[in-house]
Every structure is written in structure tokens, then in C-alpha cells.
Amino acid sequence: MKKFYTKRFSLICAFAASALLLGGGGGCSEDETEPAIGSKGVSSEVFVSSDAGSRTIKVETSGPWQARLTPETRLWVSVDGADSGETGGSLNLNYRTNNSLPRKGTILVSSARQQVVDTIYLMQYGTTPLLEFKYIGKQYSSVETIDSVAIDTNIPLSKKIYWTVVYDENSAAEPWADSVSYAQDFKYFRFRIADNKKFEPRAARFRLRFQDDWGEDHTTYFTAYQGIPGGTAETREMTFEELRGLIAEAEGEITLDQDIAVSGTVISDWASPNMAGSPMPKAAEKPDLGINDCTAYMQNADASLGLALVTTDAQQNNLQRYDKLKLWCKGLTLTKRSNPERYTLSGVTQDHIVTKEAGTAEELPAKRRFIDQLTDADIYTQVTLKRCQMAVRTGRFIPVHINYTNSFNNYYPAAVLDRHGDMIYLMTNHGCDWRFKEMPDGEGTITGIIVHEPYTFFERGGDIGRYQIRNVTREDIALDESADNVFSAVAVEWSPNGSKDPRAYAFPQYPHPATDSGQAHCVAATTGSGLSFMSTYTWLAVGSAYRAAENGLTINNASWGHKQLWDTAKNTGNSLIFEFSTQGVSSTQCSFVFTCRYHSAQGGLRYWTAEYSLDGDNWKKLTDFTVPDNGNWGNMQLEQLSGDKNVWMQVPTEILGQSVAWIRLRPVQNKIGTATTYDTATIASNGQVANAFTVSYAALRYNK
After folding, report:
1. pLDDT (tens digit per residue) in 14-51
2. 3-state secondary structure at position 131
3. What's the DSSP call for residue 275?
4. Burial, 363: exposed, middle or buried (Cβ in 10 Å; 0-12, 13-18, 19+)?
5. For residue 174, which of 161, 189, 157, 192 has the smallest C-alpha distance?
6. Which stretches does DSSP call E strand in 268-321?
7. Residue 434: is it exposed, middle or buried by C-beta count within 10 angstroms (0-12/13-18/19+)?
8. Residue 405: in which H helix or E strand, if any?
9. Contact by Cβ (8 Å): 220, 136
10. What is the per-residue pLDDT across 656-699, written as a single tens digit (0 to 9) for each?
11. Which strand (E) or helix (H) includes residue 292?
12. Phi, psi of 373 (to 5 degrees)
């Protein structure tokens, strides 16, 4: 080892004390004899307990003498009685309790006749000095980093600690472990590890040394081991196209045995809680929340292609957004998936990083798309979606009760529309601090990483579209807060806030295919002219909506629906009907969106269809959809959602300009779920499901 340099600094913090050195610390014992001094010009050590007490010092001199305490000593030692004499005598010293480290007081006794000074060192026991690194060593990659190691110490603020760094023979002549400072209230030893650009491992050993008042040294050591750069001197760089071309089949997985590397820009961030979803494996008690922390994304220089990166554990992922990264691929697993085509490199560690350099957002190529312009080549690249708005106004990013997001449904897709009438899901993880905030109502852009993530909580098998988008930060969702600045307008909307009971409304029979007559109970539209009611004219069931509260809890009476969903005599479903006027409205784009769920537990009809009518007799299909069961605490299934599901569909513009029109939601199969299965049971003989089908929001929108 060769020593490079030594520094000194003050430790600006004190930690909890350890065991007291009372009496005989280090093999010594308190001297109970009465020491004597006088005209010898020598020094003597007197050891005393850490408790308060007094000692008498005999002065043996034939002439006048004078005792003096140094300024530091006077802080805890005093003379009881005379501090001088003409011919000998004694000096009585009082000392205070010591609750800190062992300390040394200095008393100088001078003799005028002989012109000599005798020194008394009053050595008081105290707390054993503690100075320890929490860890004795750590392995670092070849890439520059700043790190810190916790220190456990009880050394007072005023004391001095010295640090030294020593390098091994593989180290370069210049220092590479430096920039020593403190972090987090001075409880950590912080330093920089420089890039290692040579293909040799190296080590640096930090030493902290403290010398106490008794002259004893206390030291602790930490060794930083740095590996060689990822790759070798012969590593060949490959393009994204060449790397992807290593798997010719539609799907496949290979372990890369070539000495190759790829370079690109990181578009994810290790600190973001929104990098990947946490699906719950079958029969698992909770989702694997570690997936997010191990996932990163990198795109090539022109942003034409991207890769997903999966590290072996969260500690291996320190990739920040816009880092310029060169990644050694030998030993990694390359996986190709189809429909859509996408590629993942897994098994990444710090040892695979050849170089890493901080970049900026301005250096990233801008990719701006409408939703219908996305292709498979955009997957795992950063894209800005143009002229977007959230489909559900006043909704939350995660409309799932907080107890279930904590345990099961840890991420959620919210529908996003664009000016051209297309839809994509915005994925939000439970770890995001904006998860229960109300979504903006205006239009703007959404920037994020294009992904393909099945979501089984919505659909069996998880198919919720070819592409989804994941924002890295809340600021990436650059939508106007005001509904006044938006490309679409609301023709009619139901968005109750819980202040009124839906059963407070009633209206006479309207001409539509109902089996009964008389009064029907309904929910009136909050915007535009419209009513919502059951086709059987029964009382609406009133429920809560998980989208309603910012803290993730519910507000009662904010959803409506019914248990009476099946006519067993006719073997057909009963509908929830929306009746409205679109008089005077015209547009080239029109859509309908609603949020639904089963109020609690299992046993809901699984398969539904949405239809519209212009005359109340003839119905045209809009789309089919499924409604998942609510979560089951005792046996949570992959296809259960403990919150609202949002369903969006395009609607022919002929529904506009009508004095009255209808949209209905109708179950189409007598298949219900159970506590453990998806659709294996049938409805009860009375036609009621176990828990009401409820809607908490619905709206017909059109482009301005």
C-alpha cells in the first residue's frame, strides 16, 4: 500500500455514549495515595474517578510556590482553599462529574526560588471513545459515484478527527477516492469514487483517527473496492437494430455470450415510483413491489428504438433520467416478445456499466405523437402525446380504496383521449404521491415511456390495448387544470358528488323498451339534460365511489345501480339506461365513458354490452366489456378490482342533434364469478347478483 495524503477535520456531531470507564480503564486504577510535588521540574499523573470528588496534592518546597490551572482545566477543576504558600503545604483540588470522554486537566505549580515548574496532570475517567464505520468495506462499479458510510461515534463536536486514504498498487498516481465531506446532519462520511477506465480492479482504504486527551489513538477503517469497467479492451459496440436482430424468431430468449455493448440514453429514473407495474402472481398474498425498482428504460441516439433493462436487484439500479449509458451486454439475457414487438435485457448489474455520463432533457430527441401514430418501434422510448385529456373528469389517478392499493391493486390505468378520438391508458403506481389527487380536466400533453403492460384486474388475460404510457414525474402530465381549455365539450354528464341521494329523484314513464310501467327512480345529469335509471323501473341502489376522496377513502351516495340484473323468466339482462338530449349538438367525434364496479365482494355478472338507440326500440351495439368482481380479502384473484373500472367507447355521431336518445349497459350472459373463479356460476333464481352493479360517473362528449 502507498500513502497518498492526509487531511484533518472537525467532527460536527456527537452520538450516544457507550460504557463508562470507571476506576480501572485500560488496566489502570485510580491512585488513592496522596501525591507530592515540589521544585523538581517534573510531571505527575493523578487518576480520578468519573464521579465528582476531590484530591489533595502535597507540595514539598523550601520556598514560595504558586499553583495555576490552565483555562481548559478551570472548566471542571477548582482549587479548594489556598493556591499558593511560602514553604510547602498542600493543594486541594475539586473536580466535577465527567459524563463525556476521558479528560486531562493541567495544574502548573511554580517555585519562585528554584525557578522551576512542576506539572500535575489530572486524568479523569469517562465514557469510552467510540469511532466506528458501520461497514468495513463496499464494492463499487467502474462508474464514478458519490457515496457515504454511516459513522457511529460519541466524540464531542469540539474534538478533531483526522482522515487518511491509502491506495493499493493498482491505483493511478492521481487520487480517485476524494471529495471527503459529511451528509445528513454530519452522521455520514461522504466521498467520491472516480471513474475506473483501466481494466484492473483497485482498492482505497479510508482511516479515521481520533486521539483522546490521554493520548490514546482510536481508529476505524473502510475499504472501497472498485471493479474494472464493464467489458474488456476488445468489447465491440453494437447498434440497437443489431442487438434486436440476434433473435430472428417472433419470440425468444437467449443469453448473450458475445463481448458486445450498446449505447443509448436512459429515459427512466431509479427514484421514480412509476417505472413498472406490480402484477400479483397467482396464489401470492401481495404483488411484487420490487419490480418497479429494478426496471429501467434506454433508447438509442435518435429515439427510434428502445430497450427495457431489468437489474438483478434494486441496489444495482442507479440509472437516472437522461444518463448517457454504455452497457456491456455479455452474460445478460435478451428476451423478445411479440404482439407488440418489444425487447428486454435482464440480469443487469453495476459491473455491466462501461460508462455513464449525466445528460439533460434538451439533448433528448423530441418525439411528439397522436395516439394513432404509435408503432411497436415506440415501445420503451420517450414520447410526448399531443392534445390529450383525461376521459373521466373529476376522477382520481387511482380510484381504488387505499386498503386495496396497499395490499392488491397496486397500479391502475386511467383512460386518456386525444383530439383524433383515440384512447390510451395512463399507468399510475400506488407509490406515486399524486395517486389519489384529482386529475386535470383540461387538455395538453403527456410525456412518458410507451410500454405494453397487461392488466388482469380489468380483463382476464390482461389485454387493455397494444400500448400504454408511463410518466416518470407528475410534471410530465402537462394538462391544463381548467375544463375551459379542452378540445372536447360535454353533451351530458352524470358526476354526483355524494351530496344528494339518487333516490330523491323520480320521473314518469318514457317511451323505451321497458317491461313495467309507472314511476322510475333515477339520477339526474349534473351537466346537460339527462336521466339514468333501471329498465325495470326499480329503485336504484345507492353506493360509494372510490374515486371520490383525496385520501383514498370513500364518499357515500356517489354511485348508483342495482342488484336486479337478470330476468330469469325471459333469460335476458336488465339494463342501466342513460336517457338524454343532444339537441343542437354536432361534431365529427363523439364518445361515451363511464366508471363501474360491483359494490363489494364476488358474484357479479361478468359479460356486458353497451348499446345506443335513437328511438327507444332499435338498439345498435357500441362495444362489449366485462365487469370484474370486487376484491376478496381472503382469496384475492388476478381478475378482481377493488375500485372503479373506466370503460370508454366511440359513439357514431348520429346520436348528436337528437331531442332524445339512449345508451344502455346490459348484461348478456348468465355467468357470474365466485370467490375463487372468474365465471363458472350462474345467477340466483330471483335474478339478483350478490352485490349491486354501480356506476359513479358517465359522460357523452364531442369534439368542439
Report:
1. 222 222 222 233 333 345 555 667 656 788 899 999 99
2. strand
3. S
4. exposed
5. 192
6. 295-299, 306-311
7. middle
8. helix 402-407
9. no
10. 999 999 999 999 999 998 888 899 999 999 999 988 999 999 99
11. helix 290-293
12. -95, -5
Q: How many CA atoms lie within 13 A of 54 on its CB side?
A: 10
Closest listed residue to residue 329, CA positions, set 408, 259, 250, 247: 259
Cell numbers linked to 515: 317491461
**What does the alpha-carbon distance between residue 304 and residue 241 come to, in Å, rounded to a whole number?**
10
Q: Which has the closest alpha carbon to 102: 162, 166, 22?
A: 22
Q: For 486-537, write each residue's pLDDT tens digit.
A: 999 999 999 887 766 665 655 555 544 444 555 667 888 999 999 998 888 7
- Per DSSP, the residues of 406-469 read HHT--EEEEEEEETTS-EEEEEEETTSTTTTSBPP-S-EEEEEEEE----TTTSTT----S-EE
Look up residue 614 and give its three cell numbers.
Answer: 335513437
Cell 397494444, located at residue? 466
Rounded Cα gap, residues 449 and 603, in angstroms: 37
Cβ-contact 539, 673 below 8 angstroms: no
The amino acid present at 515, given as its one-letter code, is T
What tens digit of pLDDT does each residue of 290-339 get? 899 999 999 999 999 999 999 999 999 999 999 999 999 999 999 999 99
Cell 380479502 belongs to which residue?
Answer: 633
- How far apart CA 16 and CA 487 sit, in angstroms, is 62
The angle formed by the CA atoms of residues 172, 176 and 181, to the nearest 5 degrees, is: 155
| Residues whose CB is less than 8 angstroms from the CB of residue 337 and which lie 6 or more positions away in sequence, other chains included | 251, 343, 344, 452
Query: Cis peptide leading into 279, omega within 30 of 0?
Result: no
One DSSP character per residue, 590-650 reads: EEEEEEEEESSSS--B-EEEEEEESSSS--EEEEEEE-PBPP-TTS--TTB-SBPEEEEEE
Instruction: Check: pTM over 0.90? Answer yes or no.
Output: no
| Residue 108: how many other CB atoms lie within 10 Å | 15
Distance CA 523, CA 504 (A): 8
Identify the CA nearest to 469 among candidates 679, 218, 307, 275. 275
CA 325/CA 645 separation, integer angstroms = 39
